[in-house]
């Protein structure tokens, strides 16, 4: 069945929605995006995603054409029109169409705002019980990974390499240290039971799920160390896991074919996942 999508103020069938070949999102990946999870037809952690969208726009001098209230109204309308119960809403904002290709951009061009829904099995996903396998991979991205841009070619290449190696995803490595996952934040649990994850900087995306998990870990009485960790430390960890709006928390059971801990999903990862889902559902909009 065709989805209804949103494009520049209109709700259209996906086959009817089109963007100019001169749109800067298409020519230069001059665009930012967000993905918000939907559970029971409601938005999860949406205020955090909007704040990060505002920040991405500020950093790139992009005009955000909607307020938080206007955006949530669009998101709710799309959820209703598509009967979405569980999955996500993708949003992309580009610097728009200037009618030609020019690296430098003019001020004041109308941006392109587009949203669509994706049905996904978030709560009962088989990856939760199976865990995922990742491979380490060179982090070839630019130096502003804190901005959520659609320049995702390094992530596409890395994930393709992971699939070719019969793995599910990558953990990206820079100067011997893990930065993050292919489209997620990365964590290990030490033998002492502390969670370790890379501190926020321009090197990683400031995950909205990550921020919630750090607060919840505190409530569980688990210490979180925000510090660099190497891939060797990850091989020797008790547990490993990833977080994102499309996975919440997925346990990592092998890195570069080496089993992590006993090779099964870790207790802390699963406990954090449960508490995240419960809390997020209670606060869903
Ligand atoms: N990706 N790091 C990277 C590089 C990401 O692409 C993502 C999210 C995250 C986790 O952020 P959050 O918890 O706010 O979803 C970390 C989304 C889901 C995507 O690109 O589809």
TrEMBL record:
Pfam family, one: Aminotran_4
CDD domains in alphabetical order: D-AAT_like
Keywords: Aminotransferase, Pyridoxal phosphate, Transferase
Pathway connected to this protein: Amino-acid biosynthesis; L-leucine biosynthesis; L-leucine from 3-methyl-2-oxobutanoate: step 4/4; Amino-acid biosynthesis; L-isoleucine biosynthesis; L-isoleucine from 2-oxobutanoate: step 4/4; Amino-acid biosynthesis; L-valine biosynthesis; L-valine from pyruvate: step 4/4
Molecular function terms from GO: D-alanine-2-oxoglutarate aminotransferase activity
Domain of life: Bacteria
Descriptive protein name: branched-chain-amino-acid transaminase
Catalytic activity, reaction form: L-isoleucine + 2-oxoglutarate = (S)-3-methyl-2-oxopentanoate + L-glutamate; L-leucine + 2-oxoglutarate = 4-methyl-2-oxopentanoate + L-glutamate; L-valine + 2-oxoglutarate = 3-methyl-2-oxobutanoate + L-glutamate
InterPro entries: Aminotrans_IV, Aminotrans_IV_CS, Aminotransferase-like, BCAT-like_C, BCAT-like_N, Class-IV_PLP-Dep_Aminotrnsfr
Protein family membership: Belongs to the class-IV pyridoxal-phosphate-dependent aminotransferase family.
């Amino acid at each position: 069945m065709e989805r209804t999508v949103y494009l520049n103020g209109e709700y259209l069938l996906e086959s009817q929605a089109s963007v100019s070949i001169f749109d800067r999102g298409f020519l230069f990946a001059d665009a930012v995006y967000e993905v918000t999870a939907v559970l029971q037809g409601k938005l999860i952690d949406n205020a955090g995603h909007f704040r990060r969208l505002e920040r991405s726009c500020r950093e790139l001098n992009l005009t955000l054409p909607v307020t938080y209230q206007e955006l949530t109204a669009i998101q709710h309308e799309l959820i209703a029109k598509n009967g979405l119960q569980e999955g996500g809403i993708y949003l992309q904002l580009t610097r728009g169409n200037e009618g030609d290709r020019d690296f430098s951009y003019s001020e004041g061009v109308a941006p392109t705002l587009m949203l669509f829904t994706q049905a996904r099995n978030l709560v009962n996903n088989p990856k939760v019980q199976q865990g995922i396998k990742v491979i380490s991979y060179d982090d070839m991205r630019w130096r502003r990974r804190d901005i959520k841009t659609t320049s995702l070619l390094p992530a596409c290449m890395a994930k393709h390499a992971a699939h070719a190696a019969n793995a599910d995803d990558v953990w990206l490595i820079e100067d011997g240290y893990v930065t993050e996952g292919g489209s997620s934040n990365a964590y290990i649990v030490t033998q002492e039971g502390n969670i370790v994850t890379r501190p926020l900087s321009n090197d990683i995306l400031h995950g909205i799920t990550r921020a919630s998990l750090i607060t919840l870990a505190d409530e569980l009485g688990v210490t979180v160390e925000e510090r660099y960790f190497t891939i060797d430390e990850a091989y020797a960890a008790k547990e490993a896991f990833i977080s994102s709006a499309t996975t919440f928390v997925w346990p990592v059971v092998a890195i570069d074919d080496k089993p992590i801990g006993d090779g099964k999903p870790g207790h802390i990862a699963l406990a954090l996942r449960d508490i995240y889902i419960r809390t997020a559902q209670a606060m869903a909009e």
